[in-house]
Amino acid sequence: MSWNARALDVLAAGPPTPLIDFPVPAPGIRLLLKDESAQPTGSLRHRHARALFRQAILDGLVAQGTTVVEATGGNAAVAQAWFARRLGLPYIVVMPGERSEARARAVEALGGECRFVTPPLAIYDAAREIDGHFLDQFGRAAPHDLGEELFGQVSPDWVVTGAGTGATSATLGHWLRSHHPADTDGPVPSAAGRASGAVGRDGPGTAENRSSGTLEGSAPGGGGWRCRVAVADPENSAYFPGWALDTPDYVTGMPSRIEGIGRPRIEPGFRPDLVDLVIPVPDAASVAAARRIRDVTGLPVGGSSGTALWAALELVERMRARGESGTVVSLIGDAADRHLATYHNDAWAAGKGLDLGPHLAELRRRTAVHPSG
Ligand SMILES: Cc1ncc(COP(=O)(O)O)c(C=O)c1O
């Protein structure tokens, strides 16, 4: 067997991550959290890494012995170092800022090399200068396997995700538009699925889908299962204003406080045409919702999982108010003990000027008390 063939075997899809029932006091409405922290490297970035390596090998850009390079300070580095080790490839990641043992440890434990660069924005040029293949998760955001897996598990009315590179929302939107689940074992259409334009401008802080006809056009007979993709977007991110104003070059120039999602500009991997709704979420709401997930599941999730949950609860609330039934899936992007010192820490939140109180009260109202706490 050639190295390439063996490598593609290593990069085959892993076991599905679990769906966790999240209690909501809304009869007939189910809220499920898709727990990507169950991936071998603890985050949704595991799927991105697999897809990036796969695409690079198929395109002939990575072969046996190629040094693989990335520029990132986050979970992507750990996931990529994990795959590089399994493929026997040297791996170098350029991280922003001064050397941090905490950030380097996980990558180095997997045999990767970390190089720290200042100013932070210089990481991309520094990565391009290294002799090897720059994976470039933002420039080449490859579709991954979440759609195949998730829609094999459940047929929801909504899936809610954050957007960093844009790959996850694009993957889900693309899968939904290129498959016909109602032809196979799709569920009886729910009220939300049947109703055309069920989401409009009446919800606070949301905008109507500018391309809502696209998916309906692909559904058999226009009356089958219909699932929509909502992107939950944190403060300072360009995705919500850029999407709502139909301005693809919208720039905020501001970093997101919610790790992994929210970008100062619209990245090339974000596909507004494959997204049905973008919901802006205040950072205090994201942090409060991350805590609510931890209260209920015990998982020390990152802020991005809270952003998605808050937006998912807005959709649940709207469905409930309209007397609709159905299923909403919200992604858990990652969980790690390091988040205990930030999103789950009162002093950190106060230092950032985040007033969680009103949001925590709202979350208690919108989510039922879990029996085991
Ligand atoms: C909840 C959630 N959704 C989505 C993403 C990923 O977004 P993308 O695929 O756009 O990079 C993340 C990444 O951290 C996340 O935590």
Count up the helices: 14
Number of domains: 2
Helix/strand/pairing class, anyone? alpha/beta
As residue ranges, the low-confidence spans are: 183-222
What share of the residues lie within helices? 25-40%
Tell me, what is the CATH class of the largest domain? Alpha Beta
CATH architectural designation of the largest domain: 3-Layer(aba) Sandwich
Radius of gyration: 20 Å
Please describe the biggest sheet, giving its number of strands, its sense, and whether it closes into a barrel: 6 strands, mixed
Brief characterization of the structure:
α11 crosses α12.
Account of the 3D structure:
The protein has 14 helices and ten strands. The protein has 373 residues and is an alpha/beta fold. The protein has two domains: 7-39 and 143-366, Rossmann fold, CATH 3.40.50; 67-131, Rossmann fold, CATH 3.40.50.1100. The strands form two sheets. A six-stranded mixed beta sheet has the order 1-2-10-7-8-9, with helices on both faces. Helix 3 (75-87) links the parallel strand 3 and strand 4. The termini are far apart. Bound molecules: pyridoxal-5'-phosphate.
Tag the structure with descriptive keywords.
four-stranded parallel β-sheet, Rossmann fold, alpha/beta, 2 domains, globular, single chain, 373 residues, binds pyridoxal-5'-phosphate
